[in-house]
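#struct-help
A.M.: can someone run this one for me? Single chain, 235 residues.
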Amino acid sequence: MAAFLSLILALPVAGTVLAQAAVDGKDGMDERLLACAACHGAQGAGTDSDYFPRLAGKPAGYLLNQLVAFRDGRRKYAPMNYLLEFQPDDYLRKMAEYYAAQRPPLPPRPPTDAGKDVLDRGQTLVTQGNPATGVPPCGSCHGPTFTGMEPGVPGLVGLRANYISAQLGAFRYGTRTAIAPDCMQTIASSLTEADVAAVAAWLSSLPMPADPSPARKGSNAMPLACGSQPLEGGH
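D.P.: on it. Structure tokens below:
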């Protein structure tokens, strides 16, 4: 709680520092984004927190969409909304490009406590989908090694089970939305609570592949239309 309060109190100063550094160009992005490292780790590597995701290596278009969504209040988390409230599109794009280019190693991860049945169910859903309910394999959008696909599909590897579960739940219940057509809402609403737990457990158990880069644009034929694409010329 003390760390959280310290972060909240620091946000107005951090936001001013970010904006001023962007204007005068005196600091590199490592220095400009120190405020982000407290939650997301140096270079966006991630931390031991279940609820602050790894940013490093995700496609810049995806990261830009999320930054704009937090700034404009379409995605809600008070510290992020507050920190980004007055940041211009060009600076958010620089932030996205910085994190997309980073390749730090994963922080140490504890072994999963999920049982074999849960992991097997998760592997089946992630790699094969569920044709009976219209759920496609995760890899059909997020890439064969789950590192995402340019320009706007995020990587899933390196995320913790509780974070994955929370985001799927948010899509299921409409508290997190994406640009229409919202393909993740469609998919997540076809998953049961047990499905979500299994998918999260299996994905979070995966090691980072030797090449963590997202797949090239068009590498995968996406099974349904998704509106979450990089913004062109603003928002």
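A.M.: thanks! Residues 2-24 form the longest helix (23 residues).
D.P.: also worth noting: Confidence is low (pLDDT under 50) at residues 1-14, 21-26, 230-235.
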